[in-house]
Amino acid sequence: MIQTTKLWIGGKWVEGSRTEPLQASYGGECLAEIRYASKEQAVQAVIAARDAFREFRAVPAHRRSSILYQAADLLERRSAEAAEIAALEAGKPIKAARAEIARTVQTYLFAAEAARNLRGETIPMDAAPRGEGRRAMLGREPVGVVSAITPFNFPFNLVAHKVGPAIAAGNSIVLKPAEQTPLSALFLAELFEEAGLPDGVLNIIPGSGKELGETLSSHPDIAFVTFTGSPEVGRQIRAQAGLRKVTLELGSNSPLLIDRGFSPEELAAIADEAAAGAFAYNGQVCISVQRVLVHEEHCEAFTELLAERARKLTAGDPLDERTDITPLINARAAERLKSWLERAKEGGARVRCGGQFDGSLMMPAVLTDVPENAELSCEEAFGPVAVVSPFGSWEEAIAAANRSRFGLQAGVFTKHMEHALQAADRLHCGGVMINDVPTFRLDHMPYGGVKDSGSGREGVRYAMEEMTEPKLVSFRSGFFKG
Ligand code: NAD
Hints:
The protein has 15 helices and 25 strands. It has helices at 39-56, 61-77, 79-90, 94-115, 157-169, 182-195, 209-218, 231-241, 264-279, 299-311, 331-346, 375-378, 394-402, 417-426, 460-466, and strands spanning 3-4, 7-9, 12-14, 18-23, 30-36, 121-123, 134-142, 145-149, 172-176, 202-204, 224-228, 245-249, 255-258, 291-295, 350-353, 357-358, 361-362, 365-368, 385-391, 406-407, 409-413, 431-434, 450-451, 454-455, 468-476. It has a seven-stranded mixed β-sheet, with helices on both faces. Strands 10-9-8-11-12-24 form a six-stranded mixed β-sheet, sandwiched between helices.
């Protein structure tokens, strides 16, 4: 029998306002009937979070930490089940889904540690003549109710990057997961309930982003909005959030720069990593390799190495151990990529491999000669596409990498220290990974973008900084008795 879900509000499972079927992106089978929250229920969740925050803010750090350790432990024990949920609802190949769950456990462990290490500083008030006789400390306080809106592509780990730091800092949360991945989010309710999280601290309301977005960005009891998703939605959230703090983790079309001077073996090793960076989970990764800039000395050979690897990938059922490539998340994503591919070809692009469609499944494509103004060069593909272009000088490569409205992460392979330093200084993005692909991310590392890739940082400790406010307390001597 097909499961019907509920909403998790104030520590209780409650009925939603309407029901939508959740279909597997591979095979289209109905996985569950999902109860969606109405706007009124979104408000109820915010109120439940507000009320829970009044007590949770006083829960000591060691207790918050042990709840997070417990949740990490429970997730690890149930990791096979969790990976299967991500594989089914997000259509993520099971190998990639397992890797995501292992990372999610790490993210909660980092949050558990960070909960016990939220530190402040003392301020030398007497550095100013009028400050004599005073001493001050700067601590950090939880912001209050965190509204978290998440995408489909890492349904466990990107949720953990919001829920973990929020709990670690002493906040309460209302989480609205992506329409395609409600089951991964609801799974968390069970874990945190068992881990002893007080009622109302975590509220999970599956529902439509369009319907609930405004409430979840602008309700007066929300102190902070954290969003991961597309730049278009990010812009709306920023406009609706008004003066409150917002973190936006948006898209990109990440560049990978490959310098001259590599041996054939080294080039092959770089191609292995580039293929994984471009095609893992069908390129539906915000830091997927998209624009590959290769020194002209290596460009032809590298293109062939990358295409060779793309041709070997196996498409199929996400639950099959051999599967690398699965259908894109929906037909709309496939139609968009198909039309971008056609327009690039009309502009003179050469498809060196892949690019065939079977329904929503797209075979991984390596392209050259893509015009600079084609969508595949300047927009976010969010699909299995690598666009390879040659460069003559390092200056040219850096300028080409920066010709983008996005700036999340860049990857650089070089043997020249000067080139590495120039890339580090001049690439305009949130992170430069020298001798790694842009797709490289660890969960404690500060992570976020510039330009249309967003603002604010995640990576547990950095997210906690965003989710807390500094508070100064100054003590003046001379008035105390005794
Ligand atoms: P999306 O923007 O379509 O949806 C993300 C979330 O926003 C979903 O929960 C959705 O329901 C909600 N939403 C939709 N319309 C809304 C509205 N008007 N108001 C409020 N919420 C609304 O993105 P997606 O397709 O799920 O994910 C893909 C995008 O996410 C890509 O652009 C990708 O690069 C980006 N992403 C960024 C990061 C990062 O860390 N920078 C990580 C993963 C994905």
